[in-house]
Amino acid sequence: MTDANMATRPRGKLDEADLLVTQCLIGGAWTAGERARIRVDDPFTLDIVAEVPDLDAADTARAIDAAGAAFPAWAARPARERSQALRRWLDLIIRHKEDLARLIVLENGKALAEARGEVDYAAGFVEFYVEQGSRSLGEIIPAPVEGRRLLVEREPVGVCAAITPWNFPLAMLTRKVAPALAAGCTIVAKPSELTPLTALAYAKLGEEAGLPAGVFNVITGDAAPIGDTLCASATVRKLSFTGSTRIGALLAAACAPTIKRLGLELGGNAPLIVYDDADLEKAVDTAMVAKFRNGGQSCIAANRIYVQSGIRDRFVAALAAKVQALRAGDGFDPDTSIGPLINPAAVAKVTAHRDDALGQGARVVAQGSAPEDHARIVAPTMLADVPTDALLTREETFGPLAAIIGFDTVEQSLSLANDTPFGLATYLCSEDLALIARVSRGLEAGMVGINTGLISTAVAPFGGVKLSGLGREGSAHGLSEYQNLKYICQAGL
Ligand code: ADP
Predict the structure, then answer these.
(1) Which of 257, 341, 357, 480 is 20 to 30 A from 405 (CA-CA)?
(2) Catalytic site residues?
(3) Do residues 446 and 149 make contact, with C-beta atoms less than 8 angstroms apart?
(4) Cα 334 vs. chain centroid, distance in angstroms?
(5) Which pLDDT score, from 0 to 100, does residue 9 have?
(6) Mutate to test the pocket of ligand 1, among 56, 107, 163 (most ligand atoms within 8 A of CB)
(7) Ligand 1 centre from 267 Cα, in Å?
(8) What is the value of pTM for the model shown?
(9) How crowded is residue 465: how many other Cβ atoms within 10 Å of its Cβ?
């Protein structure tokens, strides 16, 4: 279906109505729960799209038990068989790409083209781990003494828990679930209460793909009691969380008594540094993607754009022209580049960051178009002359606000970029190989994008240092996160 046709079809209508799922999946059974339901709203129309179960601690315990019961048989299956089940799931994700993208727009608000991109990105994790599952090798270590054989085998860690955010409702789930299942783990997933529908549709497709009952369970409801139960459970051997540093730290503490494996993808405060010798066009493209992808609602969004004095005027003028052309609006409108923000708090934060910078001498150099007085929409905005200590340099803005901050020397750029407790993504634009090598080594971060704002891919390790988290997702490393190494020493040979 083309975008032109999309404009005439009823807003958000699915091809397969039964992919709008409003029940949770526990041990292969769909459950509506017994308590008041959680309302999911459409951030553009502000209408209620659906209501999903408000499951509690007891329901969570049932889901953990179901995952525990399913674990031995799933772990014992040959890796190839697990991959075949994942492959069927992948095929269904691809077949239902349009509906999944529509669900993402309905509950998250992002532009449909970006939602389609998210489904491709999400499917990429499943595809990668379909293949990687069979390539997970052990080791034979040359024995230090005679008559011994030293082996290292990989075993699944056991039952896992996944807690995911609203900004990439499908991709943040598949990048946990696909490696977990490929490794032989079973999982209980709790999507964000703001965007549970994509996760429930994904579960439905998993059922259709023939996943055994209890291998993938998904529960919705109030985050705290569900999170507490998952963290306290001795059956759950690993928690993988993507979200804020504040909640990540709480969960890590709650997991301490049961010594769980942890995967934490937390907040970022990404710098983008543009050096004098950068290719202007590449630098502007990098800034547009790094800043405005997903409306700026991404933990790897460029939060601070540092531009060296020699290129600053040209860069500001060229970026301003692109920002001016952005259009905020309904994600289903093919002309929309940026959808609404997720909730009123998100709007308040972007506004506070803009006002703080303006109060300290920054100026608005470009503004895209936006409907007037929409409660969740902020016009894409670019600020120049932002001071180095503006509020937005210290906190994630998580919205369509591009802040240009000047600098003079390479030394200064590194100290500004690293002056944050976070260390997820960083970006730099330059054509000088020696400078690129120096700066990419000097940046305290898990990831460095050079002349590109588009770094996320299933085949590379995604993750941070400092307050941005622990562990890596994607790539072969992402599979290891769901495996324990078992060392086997056989003597008397
Ligand atoms: P954000 O600020 O991006 O919304 P959060 O860290 O609040 O990030 O949310 C990310 C995920 O963590 C969501 O699934 C949310 O429901 C969940 N969450 C929030 N609070 C808790 C909690 N106390 N225990 C467990 N999960 C939580």
Answers:
(1) 341
(2) 265, 299
(3) no
(4) 24
(5) 77
(6) 163
(7) 12
(8) 0.97
(9) 15
